[in-house]
Amino acid sequence: MDEKRLENFEKMLQAVQREYADIEEKMERLKADGKTKSATYRQYMGRKMMYQNMLGMYRLYGLVK
Q1: Full-model pTM
Q2: Is the Cα dihedral 6, 8, 11, 15 positive or negative?
Q3: d(Cα 44, Cα 42) in Å, to the nearest integer?
Q4: Distance of alpha carbon 57 from alpha carbon 62, whole angstroms
């Protein structure tokens, strides 16, 4: 049971890291287009902050570097 839990954690962590990187990439494109005040950019900012907090918690507990 613990092995399956660890496997699921690893999958979740990878998904969070991928999503965070994807959001950063999209935000950079919008920034390059001068759209930092758009609703889409602001939505991405909110999501980025959420994922940033999640990754920060993982770091706090020594689960990621």
Answers
A1: 0.87
A2: negative
A3: 5
A4: 9
